[in-house]
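Weekly structure sync, notes
Attendees: PL (lead), two postdocs, one rotation student
Agenda item 3: pending single-chain targets
PL asked that the sequence for the first pending target be pasted directly into the notes so everyone works from the same version. It is reproduced below exactly as submitted, 173 residues in total.
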Amino acid sequence: MSDVGRVIVNTGNGKGKTTAALGTVFRALGHGHKVCIVQFLKGQGQYGERLMAEKIDSLDWFICGRGFVFKKKNIDDDRKVAREGFLLAREKIESDKYDLIVLDEITYLPHYNFLDVEEIVELILKKPQRLSVIMTGREADPKLIQIADTVSSIESIKHGYEQGIKAQKGIEF
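Predicted structure, written out during the meeting:
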């Protein structure tokens, strides 16, 4: 890896933000790098990428969510789990053990007032210089976009779900 890590944000309303991050994860793994993924909001489940991750020694994966919070009325538990996940992410970033860390769905934390965006900004600005970080999720705060080296907005043009096609194993999960 380069002596200077990158900060990447994958945002937008389209499908594929996490998938794009995972492409970079597999690229880094192919070069022998150590990778960590901290997934916010998404709950437990038999996601194909997680099943594969269990087979890769140089990839650590942490689930810090109870499922998406879009329609829940009581989100105090979600807020607590997200906060604990952020503390875990801080620990992993500060450990200087990894070459790449993905903070999947972290953009939702400030959006749902689970965490102040300034805490994320401060963590990213203080990361080890060599560490690359990818942040994903919709509606990335402008402050996250400002500190990033690369920002991609993935927009939806058409989605099978809108046509009544249900999520399929191996495609959506």
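Discussion points:
- The chain has a mean pLDDT of 91.
- The first helix runs from residue 17 to 30.
Action: rotation student to compare against the earlier draft before next sync.
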